[in-house]
Amino acid sequence: MKRLFKWVGIIILSLVLLVLTTIVFVNTKAGKKIIIDRVSIYLNKKLGNTVQISEFDFKVPKWIELRGVYIKDQKNDTLLYAKYFRLELNMRSLFSSHWVLNNLLIDHAVINIKQSNSDSAYNFQFIINAFETKEKKVTQATAVPHISVGNLRLQNVQFNLNDITQLVSADINKLIVKKLNYKENNISAQNFLMHKSTIQYDTKQVALIKTDSISATVNQNKYMLTIDTIQLVNNQLAYNKLSKPFVEGFDPNHVRIQQNSLLVHQLIYTNTESSANIINLQLTDKTGFKLNQLSLVYKQKDSSFQFQQIMLKSAFSAIEGNITIVPNEYQLKLRNTRISRKEMQLLAPLQLAKLKPSLKEINTILLNVDAIGNEKLVKIKRVEAATNNHIFYINASGTLANISNPNLLKYQLNIGRLSMLKQVLYAFLPTAQQQSIQLPSVLNAEGTLTGSQQTLNPNLFINSEYGKLGVKGIINDFTNPSLINYDLLLND
User: Fold this and answer.
1) Alpha helices for 119-238 (secondary structure H)
2) Which of 401, 419, 415 is nearest to 459 (CA)?
């Protein structure tokens, strides 16, 4: 019996020594080289393609490092290259339902995703095919573990996507995400920072595919994204709709901005609602327009949107107020709003070119608005508009109908006060008649104005240096000085 215990002890001691020797060996350079060579051979054979890993290092159970990772696609183009990859983690957590990754760093990497025009397959499909099981079994869906990443950092990472609908190019200089969590369709992060990076997104013109029938299953599971703080600093952002031509001025189909600064608090985004507190946005558009400040509180639920506490400032313009959009109705409240001609010249030069020559002295418009309505009918509780040098002023209320179609536009205005210089009136007169008609230098009026794009029905009491006058009747084709005609009753 003593001999039996002796040999059992020898066997156990030998196994322990073997395990310890193996652990020591795999932590040597030679051991790690053998591991990486075996992994590379396995992946090359499994994928039938080029997979290279220059260096591999680790320390159980704390961290893993990879250097010089290179994977080709089946056309011998680069699918993935990563100069340096480091993952610090709690390896024991990988055997639980909560994976804890303390730090994840990727430095100097290139990722190229392409979609074939012939079969719509992506260039990484061969990897999925290589590892998917050939046996078709009905199994229960495997629960995705709760994943926590203490610090995610990307440096000098290039990402390119080219599929049948879009082109995406991202050159990430620095991206840091702190306290990133994923659990049951919920993603949360404490901080998101992107610095000196360039992102370009282009949409392609795609031919419509005719099919007899189309069926799709939509995932109705609720998801949520929450980020406590988002900070973007000195990034280049661009968007192009390649099927649309370029137009002068601000072009929503072709946008390129230098995003100098963005700070957002408490971003919440789900498949039914979203909200964010935009503390400050500063940017420069490709037109030369520079936004010095934009702050607002944003809320969305289903088809309802709220933009509250809007504060927008540029070098010469400013907007303050609230905008609420709900199905079939919107509410607009603007105060202390100032619109500069100089900046509108950058954003809408084609529209300004249509302005009558006699109105080109207007450099600034001051605006206060309180209105509610929809495309069919807008109720103006109050509108107050003024220009520089007292060229024009109006304080009124009323209604506007069919605002989405200028040809069908109708209005009814109750004018508390209207004041304008004569150059405003000259805008409605033929050029040949402007010198022959003597107008008062300043005209003040109150009363009502009703009409459309073709007709104007004034019922006004006018006061000028020529005296006081009541005007009532109809003016036809008043927007076309060469065709204008009128039938008016004048009372002094």
Assistant:
1) 125-131
2) 415
Q: What is the CA angle 267-268-269, rounded to 5?
A: 120
pTM of the model: 0.82
What distance separates the 2 farthest-apart alpha carbons in the chain? 135
What are the DSSP calls for 168-194, one per residue?
Answer: EEEEEEEEEEEEEEEETTEEEEEEEEE
Mean pLDDT of the chain: 84
Taking the C-alpha atoms of residue 41 and residue 79, their distance in angstroms, rounded to an integer, is 18
Other residues' Cβ atoms within 10 Å of the Cβ of residue 232? 20
Lowest mean pLDDT among 41-50, 86-95, 300-309, 313-322: 41-50
**Model pLDDT for residues 66-103, shown as the tens digit of each residue:** 899 898 888 888 999 999 999 998 877 877 888 899 99
Domain boundaries, the chain: 1-41, 49-117+145-203, 255-338, 364-492
DSSP helix/strand/coil, 31: helix
pLDDT in tens, 438-469: 788 899 999 999 998 888 899 999 998 888 88
Alpha-carbon distances, residue 259 vs 233, 281, 431, 451 (angstroms): 7, 8, 45, 44
266 — alpha (psi -120 to 50), left (phi > 0) or beta?
Answer: left
> Is the separation of the CB atoms in 121 and 115 below 8 Å?
yes
- Using a 10 angstrom Cβ sphere, with 0-12 exposed, 13-18 middle and 19 or more buried, the burial of residue 14 is exposed
Backbone φ and ψ of 11, nearest 5°: -65, -45
Q: What are the pLDDT digits (tens) for 210-224? A: 434 333 343 456 889
CA neighbor of 434 nearest in space, from 380, 357, 370, 487: 357
Question: Please, are residues 72 and 78 in contact by the beta-carbon 8 Å criterion?
Answer: yes
pLDDT higher at 298 or 209: 298
Query: Which phi and psi angles does 431 have, rounded to 5°?
Result: -55, -40
Cα-Cα-Cα-Cα torsion 286, 291, 292, 295, nearest 10 degrees, comes to -140
Residue 130 to residue 198: CA distance in whole angstroms? 34
Question: How far is residue 456's CA from residue 487's CA, in Å, rounded to a whole number?
Answer: 11
Residue matched to tokens 């025009």:
117
- Taking the C-alpha atoms of residue 231 and residue 233, their distance in angstroms, rounded to an integer, is 7
The residues facing 319 across adjacent strands are: 312
Which among 264, 274, 272 has a CA at the least distance from the CA of 299?
274
CA distance 346 to 314: 13
SS3 (DSSP) at 445: strand
The CB density around residue 351, as the number of other CB atoms within 10 Å, is 11
What number of CA atoms fall less than 13 Å from residue 156's CA on the CB side? 8
Give the rounded distance of the alpha carbon of 355 from its chain centre: 32
